[in-house]
Amino acid sequence: MKKYLLATTAAGAALAMTAPANAGGYLSIFGGYSMNDQEASARIFQSSGTWTGSYTFASVSLTSSHYTSNAFGASFYHRHFWTTVSFIDREGSWVSATDVDLKADDGFVIGAATGGEIAPGLRGEVEIAYRKHDVNAKGTWYFSSAYVGTGYAVKYSATDIHVHSATTESPYTTSQVLSAGGPNFWTKFPAYTKGGSFTSSEVSGSGDLTAMSIMANVWLDVDLGLGDGINTYIGAGLGYADVTLEMGDVDVSDTAMAFQVGAGVSFDLPKEGHAISLEVRRFVVPKLELTHGGFDIPLDYEVTDIIISYRIAL
User: Fold this and answer.
1) Which of 23, 68, 109, 311 could join 19 via S-S bond, C-beta 3.0 to 4.6 A?
2) CATH number of 2-49+104-144+207-313
3) 218-230 exposure pattern, b = at least 16 Cβ within 10 A, e = fewer
4) Ramachandran area for residue 225 (φ above 0: left; ψ -120 to 50: alpha; else beta)
5) Parallel/antiparallel/unpaired status of strands 184-222 and 175-179
6) Where are the domains of the chain?
């Protein structure tokens, strides 16, 4: 950045120094209202990971039944139970991110410039300026996870069967077990499971968007015949700006080429060599690369300034 600033300073100084010492050198200070309507959507945070784990799940089920035929017959009792044990290896992933909408509010601009006449009606100057805007952010934080699991399950099953015989005299008080027991067996089969979760919440924040610039400007005086002591002018400038966004954990900046165009009207004051000016400028930094956490924040810097300046002849 330093070499760019030095180059811009040198260019502006060269413009200002091309004029002779008595050719209208001046120093000005200025300030004003900086209108910014920039909006951008960006991801300002993301974290992710994976995990693995082995799990064992067991389930048990029991069924039973009882049946009595009649007073002269037999009763039948059946019980069946089974147990399943699953052995699962899980692999999962998760991601957490914050997506926000950024909006820059209007702010202010202050600065100073020095220069002089480089040709009849043409002025060159070097300018340093500082701009600041509040930035508000609203968005969503979310956490998402998912997993899949593969393995096998073992199922054990057993059955007990009881058949009772009753006498005709005491059909409900005397019984004899005629048979008991049943088939017992186990099986092994593949098992599969999957799942996941998602949660989110609204987030908001605020911060500052600032720009420090150094410019080489050229202003052309245009006589519109408005009267003695009233001078109008148009001009443009080229330089570099260092733009910084600070908001919570976000602190990013970038230096890029900047340009501006403007027009104004100046009014000579009763004190010789003093004047006050009203200007409108369009200041643009078009190719910013603001990056946070590996994600771009697509925010160019474009403002319209309404400036009042106080100029003193040197």
Assistant:
1) 23
2) 2.40.160.20
3) bbebeeeeeeeee
4) left
5) unpaired
6) 2-49+104-144+207-313, 52-92+145-198
Per-residue tokens: 173? 């008080």
The tens digit of pLDDT for each residue in 191-204 reads 778 888 888 888 88
Cα angle, residue 201 at apex, residues 196 and 203 outer, rounded to 5°: 140
Type of residue found at 24: G
Q: Which has the closest alpha carbon to 146: 97, 94, 96?
A: 94
270, burial (CB in 10 Å: exposed 0-12, middle 13-18, buried 19+): exposed
d(CA 109, CA 257): 18
Tokens, residue 75: 């009763």
What's this model's pTM, rounded to 2 decimal places? 0.68
Q: Which two tokens stand for residue 51?
A: 């995990």
CA angle 248, 252, 257 (to 5 degrees): 145
pLDDT-based confidence at residue 40 (cuts at 50, 70, 90): confident
pLDDT digits (tens, 9 = 90+) for 207-250: 999 999 999 999 999 988 888 889 999 999 999 999 999 988 88
Amino acid identity, position 212: M
Angle at 118 between CA 113 and CA 124, to 5 degrees: 25
Give dist(CA 24, CA 10) in Å, integer: 20
The per-residue pLDDT for range 107-138, each reduced to its tens digit, is: 999 999 999 999 998 999 999 999 999 999 88
